[in-house]
Amino acid sequence: MRIISTAVMVKVVSILIIVIILLSTYQVKSQGYNITLPTRPTKPEFALLNVNVLQVPSSTEGIATLQLNVMYLGLDYLKNVKFKLRVENSLIVSDNPIIIGFLEPGQVIALKYLVKVKVPRTYRLKLVISWESRYVKSAVGYSKVSESSGSITIWRDIRIRGTPLLSVDVRPRMLLEKSINTIDFEVCNVGSDVAYNVYVQIHTSAPFIEGNYSKMYIPRLDQDVCKTLKFEVIPYAGPVTLRVSLNYLDSQGNVRYENYDLLLTTISTRPLEVSTSRLFINGSEEQTLHIEISNTGIVPLHNITLSIVSIDGALYVGNSTFEIRKLEQKERIKLPLKLVVPSRSRKVIINYLITYQLPNTNVISYRDAITLQVINQPKIIITDVTITPKTVKSGEAIVLSITFTNLASVTAYNVNVSIHCSDKLRPVSKSSIFFGKINPQTPTVAAFTINTTKPGKAFVRIEITYEDDYGHQYTHSETLNIDIMNSTLSIEKVEEKKISTVIMAVGVIACIVVISVVIYLLRRK
Description:
Layout: H1 2-30, E1 46-55, E2 61-72, E3 77-87, E4 91-92, E5 98-103, E6 108-118, E7 121-131, E8 133-138, E9 141-144, E10 150-160, E11 166-171, E12 174-176, E13 181-189, E14 195-204, E15 215-221, E16 226-233, E17 240-249, E18 255-267, E19 272-276, E20 280-282, E21 285-295, E22 301-312, E23 315-317, E24 321-327, E25 332-341, E26 347-357, E27 363-375, E28 380-388, E29 397-406, E30 412-421, E31 425-427, E32 432-438, E33 444-452, E34 456-467, E35 473-484, H2 489-524
Parallel strand pairs: 12-18, 20-27
Antiparallel strand pairs: 1-2, 2-6, 3-5, 3-7, 3-8, 4-6, 7-10, 8-9, 11-13, 13-16, 14-15, 14-17, 17-18, 19-21, 21-25, 22-24, 22-26, 23-25, 26-27, 28-29, 29-33, 30-32, 30-34, 31-33, 34-35
């Protein structure tokens, strides 16, 4: 009995000591003292829940948007938490690291990064999470944990597949009325990923004797692969519009839709064919369009004259009349026609008159037209580059200001400005700036701070990359030459100038003394 009572007394005393310690701690807290708790044994933990690819480039290279969903699993509260992402063999063009001021236990953070990638490709992600301090929350407030800073690294491999993009084409683009025409209809995957379960439906806007061409199914269409379907039609009149509807799946199972209108011209049965190698033409620029003249008949043709009567939706520069002395059977010739297409144009119609002579001296002429759809694309150029200060000296920092403008009538997307310096120049903080989208006719400035390391000749190559609505990428670059002066050159010149000035002054005084002495001696005589 005495042993049992002693054990009970030891337990009671231990409980009383714990109660006294807790009461004294609460009393000190209530008086406003800041108590630093001992180091907590558990290190804060994070879980990378998933990585979502929100946006991918439609071409093989461009900007992808990654969203990393991270959950904080620790028990403490963290202050000034930094999330720094590194992507192997790639460049992050958005803010990095992302800083969260205060992080609570169980909180989920959605982190978004813009990454320059090539698709399809697998990338290794390295997410470094660091924090400045840890705090414990109690009934009276927050208490800082000693030795509370730290970091943790999370690795993850992701596969960025890209986006499929389908284009269609048809050949030939000029059909003979009331004759059997064999048409090659082509579907191509010009995107950056595979397209699955491709359904193609074709509708016509003019009377045809139809074949089995109204529907087409392709189970799988790989990147840079085309599928061709041949069918025969007999048009009664024209022009003819083929309305093409595409329905397919990407690698993520998303349903995609695309629609195209292909315009075909119909002509009477003639041995001379006039066409172009393109259905579309770019707006807002001067370009050369090649008109093809082919002899599809069974006899040679002579004294062929092609005259451009008028062009709707564009201006032409140079010759408007072309002459061909002879065109053999199945022979084809290309004639260059320079056009300036305004950005407001939606289509270009080339009205022409062609005249030719058959071997039996019969002269035949007819009028027709070629219609091209206009595709407007963004066009960014550099309008001004300034360096501050204007006199560049070795060992000093300069500010390079680049002014650029989108001259087109459409918006440019994923605009990124970067500089590449020679060995005598070194960017201070960053060598590229991401602007997102640039609206038409909007001057924009990108400024970079560069340190000069050595005197001599140096250069900076300025490169601007951007995309259009379809994800096609464009690049504009210029090279700026810079002369870096020696920082002591101006001081040496000033000292040399001072010495030369003193010498000149002494020489002038000496001359005056000599002249004065000579005059004095002459007067005495």
